[in-house]
């Protein structure tokens, strides 16, 4: 089993560092896929996809994109989880949507992992308050400048290397 497949099974057992590295890995390795998905979403206003044991439904309306999710076997979707506002510039919006898709994939993997050895608790849908693409994540909602400094000091090289190679 690859390191990535192991991450798909860990769910809530993924550490904060693991989730952040997984976000970066997904952002880099799925760049083209996310661009195709972004164009589909912008053209059709809805996009449905699956990852791990979860399903994500994105919607685009009034310049905003949000998503809801559910476990594959479930009938009930979560309430709206995250939302971003698009700028109207296709180039900028594609970049923002790629980050949004990677973040939502991590959120769903964390909450709806593939079946594995580690027991998952039943409960609500948990997400990090601030997404990994936001400087607020690195500064815990405080000063953006300190968030930028902390972002550059963050080192996920070891986990990213394992995700890419194993």
Question: Can you offer a commentary on this structure?
Answer:
- The protein has 166 residues and is of the alpha+beta class.
- The protein has one domain.
- Helices cover 49% and strands 16% of the residues.
- The protein is built from seven helices and four strands.
- A four-stranded antiparallel β-sheet has the order 1-2-3-4, covered by helices on one side.
- A hairpin with a 2-residue loop joins strand 2 and strand 3.
- Helix 2 packs across helix 4, helix 2 crosses helix 7 and helix 3 crosses helix 4.
- The termini are close together.
- The model has no long low-confidence stretch (mean pLDDT 88).
Provide a brief overview of the structure:
The chain has helices at residues 3-10, 16-29, 31-44, 90-111, 135-139, 144-153, 157-165, and strands at residues 46-51, 54-61, 64-71, 82-85.
Distinctive features:
166 residues, alpha+beta, four-stranded antiparallel beta sheet, 4 strands, globular
Shape: globular
Q: Helix count?
A: 7
Major beta-sheet overview? 4 strands, antiparallel
Broad structural category = alpha+beta
Query: What share of the residues lie within helices?
Result: 40-55%
The strand order across the widest sheet is 1-2-3-4
Number of strands: 4
C-alpha termini separation: 8 Å
Order of helices and strands: HHHEEEEHHHH
Beta-strand content:
15-25%
Number of domains: 1
Radius of gyration: 16 Å
Taking pLDDT < 50 over at least 5 consecutive residues as the criterion, the unreliable ranges are none
Overall pLDDT level: 88
Summarize the topology.
Layout: H1 3-10, H2 16-29, H3 31-44, E1 46-51, E2 54-61, E3 64-71, E4 82-85, H4 90-111, H5 135-139, H6 144-153, H7 157-165
């Amino acid at each position: 089993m690859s390191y990535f497949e192991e991450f798909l099974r860990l769910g809530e057992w993924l550490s904060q560092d693991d989730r952040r590295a997984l976000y970066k890995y997904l952002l880099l390795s799925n760049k083209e896929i996310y661009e195709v998905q972004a164009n589909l979403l912008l053209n059709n206003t809805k996009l449905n996809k699956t990852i791990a044991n979860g399903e994500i439904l994105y919607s685009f309306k009034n310049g905003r994109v949000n998503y809801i999710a559910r476990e594959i076997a479930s009938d009930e979707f979560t309430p709206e989880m995250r939302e971003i506002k698009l700028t109207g510039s296709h180039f900028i919006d594609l970049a923002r949507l790629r980050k949004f898709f990677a973040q939502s994939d991590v959120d769903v993997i964390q909450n709806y992992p593939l079946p594995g050895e580690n027991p998952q608790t039943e409960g609500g849908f948990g997400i990090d308050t601030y997404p990994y693409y936001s400087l607020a994540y690195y500064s815990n909602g405080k000063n953006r400048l300190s968030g930028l400094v902390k972002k550059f000091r963050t080192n996920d090289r070891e986990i990213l290397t394992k995700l890419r190679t194993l």
